[in-house]
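Reading a protein record of the kind used here takes only a little practice. Each token is a code from a learned vocabulary of local backbone shapes. With that in mind, consider the following protein and its fold in token form:
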Amino acid sequence: MLDPPAIVPRPQDQYPDQTTGVNVNAEPAVLSETRGRVALVTLNQPKTFNALSDALMLGLIDALKAADADPEIYVIVITGNDKAFCAGANLQEFVPLMETNATQDRTVDLLMRQFDVTRKPIVAAVRGLALGGGFEVALACDTMVIAESAQVGVPEVSLAVMPGAGGTLRLVQAIGKAKAMKMILTGKPVGAQQAVADGIAAELAPDDECLGRALKLADTMAKNGPLAIRLAKDSARRAFDMPLPQAIEHERSNFFAAMHTDDCHEGVAAFNEKRKPTFVGK
């Protein structure tokens, strides 16, 4: 059964207690830790519901770069806290963009570009609210585990603006035009069960198991050949950027690149010898 109609927060309720990029917790805006072959990246501005301040976005860019460059890390998990994955734009920082006739937000552009160039798989563990730009961050990840009480959406039209960090495009790609248009043009969020049913998220989890499930999923990915999962991710993401014949050619190129790695030889040998493979990323 799908979720009942979601309660739509008012704009002022969606972005509570926001500040102008100052870390109100006097702690890093983004935390990073290692769980085996998995990098766990936590958005860490709970008093602003992890709103997209410059500090948080720059911290997330740095965390993604560091994890992608670390040869010991194979997969990345991004999460927030139990109340909010990320509640969207920091409205206090949004106002100057309105007043200066800005045509771009450099920090947002850099963040979305970092998602595009990060080679390793990224799993979003979404608890609480993921709204506006925060939902766009989740959509920029490669897959999503969502908590039962979570809500996701693009409420920007309720503020007489619109999604501006890939949300309209990625949402249409994820769930198709009709359902995406309903979310985009009404501004109403959907609940977790609906998000899974529509294909926004891959897995539904109890609230207290969401992060654990995401880490388990990431660990399962990390047991595979690290170069292979990067190349497979690259092929899948490029499917939206190229005409089909070029996308197939790109996939074939990645296939042969994977086939000629030491890890592929190890994987085939381990299969024939009925043992677990030992992959080294070469």
Residues 144 and 202 are 6 Å apart (CA to CA). The longest strand covers residues 30-35. Residues 226-273 form a domain with the Lyase 2-enoyl-coa Hydratase; Chain  A, domain 2 fold (CATH 1.10.12). The chain has two domains: 30-223, 226-273.
